[in-house]
Amino acid sequence: MIHLFARGEAIDVKKHRLKTEVKGATYSGLRIIGKKGNYMAQCILDV
Length: 47
What we know:
It contains no helices and 2 strands. It is mainly beta and 47 residues long. The chain has one domain (1-47). The protein has a two-stranded antiparallel ribbon. The protein is elongated. The chain starts with 23 loop residues before the first strand and ends with a strand.
């Protein structure tokens, strides 16, 4: 079973310019860290 959470901020059209969608995740910024049976993964999204 996988449990996860994501963080970020809600879209605010006054602050964020909506122009495109996510094209994919980049492997160059991929990190996976495991400690005591828990894992954290981080990736950078290419827009």
